[in-house]
Amino acid sequence: MEINQKYHLHNRASFFVHRDELDEKSSLEAEIENLFNRQQVQLLTTDLPEWNPEKMKEMSDKEKDELRKKNQEVVLQLGHTWIRQMMNPQTGFNEKMTLFWHGHFACRTIQNAYLTLEMNNLLRTHALGNFRDLLYAVSKSAAMIQYLHLQQNRKAQPNEDFARELCELFTLGRDVDYAESDVTEIARAFTGWGSDKSGKFFFNEKQHDSGTKTIFGKTGNFKGEDVLEMILANPHTAFHIVKKVYRFFVQETTNDEHLQSLSQVFYESDYDIKTLMKALFAADWFYESKGKLIKSPVEFMVGLGKLFDLKFEDPKTLFKLQHFFGQVLFDPPNVAGWPGGRQWIDSSRLALRLRIGSLIVNKGLIEEELSPSFDAQLQEAETRGQLKFFEEVDWDNFWKRAADANLVELIIRTENPFFPDLFKNRDSATVVQLISTPDYQLI
Amino acid sequence: MNRRKFLKQTGIITAGSILVPSFLRAGNWTEALSGITKKRLVVIQLSGGNDGLNTMIPYGMDEYYQNRTKIGIQSTDFLKADDLFAFNGKLGGLYDLYKKGLLSVINSVGYPNPNRSHFRSMDIWHTACNSDEYLTSGWLGRYLDNHCTHAYEGIEWEGQLSLALKGDERSGIALTNPAAFYNTIHADFFKNLADPQTENEELNYLYKVFNDTKNSAEYIFDQYQLKTNTAVYADTRFAVKLKEIATLIKSGIQTPVFYTSLSGFDTHVNQNAVQNRLLAELDSSISSFVKDLQENNLMQETTLLVFSEFGRRLQENASHGTDHGKANVAFVIDSNLSQTAFTLNKLDLQNLDDGDPTFKIDFRQIYADVLKHTLSVDPDVILKRRFDSAGLFV
Description:
Number of helices of chain B: 12
Helix content of chain A: 40-55%
Structural class of chain A: mainly alpha
Oligomer: heterodimer
Radius of gyration of chain B: 22 Å
CATH superfamily of chain B: Alkaline Phosphatase, subunit A
Number of domains of chain A: 2
Number of strands of chain A: 4
CATH class of chain B: Alpha Beta
Largest sheet of chain A: 2 strands, antiparallel
Strand order of the largest sheet of chain B: 7-6-8-1-9-10-5-11
Order of helices and strands of chain B: HEEHEEHEHHEEHHHHEHEEEHH
Strand order of the largest sheet of chain A: 1-2
Structural class of chain B: alpha/beta
Helix content of chain B: 25-40%
Number of helices of chain A: 23
CATH architecture of chain B: 3-Layer(aba) Sandwich
Strand content of chain B: 5-15%
Order of helices and strands of chain A: HHHHHHHHHHEEEEHHHHHHHHHHHHH
Number of strands of chain B: 11
């Protein structure tokens, strides 16, 4: 039982854990402490293509095309490095939190390497820090300023995009403690917020509406920062964040009691994310949620990668797989992020997930007479050089690491009554079968 | 042991293409044949934002040529529909359908507070939401949720399923090769996986989709093999998609919704060459498809809807192209169009919204009409609010 709780903790917090990483004698409390203590914040670095809006205006179509390609290449690399960091036990939990915030402060930056790096690193920096700092950093980031049209939010012609999503998605939750009139007034408070040519936050006094505003029933000469503070002072903000954390780390079906107790902890800690996550992992009900969350495509890929110690050496392959599975990093569907849960699964995607494990183990070798539509897609991508499966599973390594593990317990999180009988053998065929089950889609 | 042998041993790949004659398997599905709508909807998505102004050319409006000195379509290259509008010359087949009273041109289709991002605007069309809200299910997905029981009731002939066909509980199926899809999911190993029926709702959901996928793959494959489609279509990718859909329809498959798309309409540069090629491909494919269904007496009960996520600006850009706009043109092809359906080609180029024609018909009015007329369901439930009928059908 104890070992299953540890498997559960690590699967949820950092995608997967090998049996040989677990110390049977340590207590669950010690395991949690250890998980937090070993996390490092490792910022992504890369050589950025030059970003100069003035210069871009003068570029020829060919030069623009080259810049676009360079951007794509760098973003592809960043996505690749990110996945590798998710697989690393020293950074995995912090990266899982970063992934959560990426869905919460959803921002499409995939076409711009500069904005991608800026946004992703600030999410990483504050991933287990303080939500107030995170909210300020995101609100003042060039990426979000551009995405939600803050630059176009001017005194003479306010743009409500940011104001609306700030309330509805980022903090209070839809229609909680705010009205249409608040959105309009909040937009006025944020007029003048923008970023300069180098992508740094810039407050344009001239575009700021310094008149009196009425927000949340209070009247004053409010600025953007005042609005953020009023929103943070409202406990419903803590509740909204906790609810999203719960649906990401615990289960889709929320429980009001659990949410209330967690959001109290979060609010009283003045939005300390570490305190929130420690309370969550310490709760009994967290361990009852084992096997009740559908893995996101990224969780699926990272988990599979860790299980077999894959290297995922080719960034393009990883990118294409994200595309086929329906979750591309830096490219959420809209500002509301990925809907998650059952929305990850439809017939075609389930079939692909059930097959992909055997494709990876099979070095992507596709039998001609079997070419399913995905295989055809995958094969086309492979011919175009977008996809490469070249990994050899190191089975000796796998069996060494799994020496003390019950295979079903190691790989499967559900309590499927048929599985102990169905998967009695300890051989590679059984392992490949286990990762090809509906049960393997759950974490 | 080589890799292939190893995988065969796991049972995850089938031993080869096992083509069981369909009459041996058809029996399971007789019960499914009743109670489903007799009609079907075929949605064709033009991805990238088709330029509606060079599709249905408002040649009788001065503003058109004033703003399109380089890419405006000249009279030698269009087919007059009336005193104001003409079909792009590449749309000879659609023009014929229009003349026969089978095609409605609906112009200035859009929604309030339009969004010029491909992504977001397509989202809005797929989910039928307002531009300031975010829905996670598609309009046809909600139709499947409320009125269907199997994945095969919504078939998208593509590698991946569009949001339009994703419901909260039930989604359509995306495929391009029925035999292959069948083989993927009917490997020996999967036969041994029985639904454990535990108290874990998510696990139950996965097994439900798993079993539905197996059944649907089998059913679609069976139907697909019933007849060889001998009708003649052009040899283009899009024509093949419509031909495959026609093959399924002619088999008598119980699928009320089909979906497919033609992409490449994002014509910022040298628009006319690109758009003309695409429109010709669209026209030829739809013409063959309609002819194929007509010859098999299936067009009576079929509706086609052709749309794109947004139109393009009235003013051409400096690169002989056009940039993202707002309201656009849509087509509906059906044998029971009303008189009103031929009065919906309206456009105002004098009162522009930031350089774009404004919308006059909400796209959800068209959805409401096809939901009611073609799919025989209450549109208000599917669209989550009430929209006035566009008056398309008798």
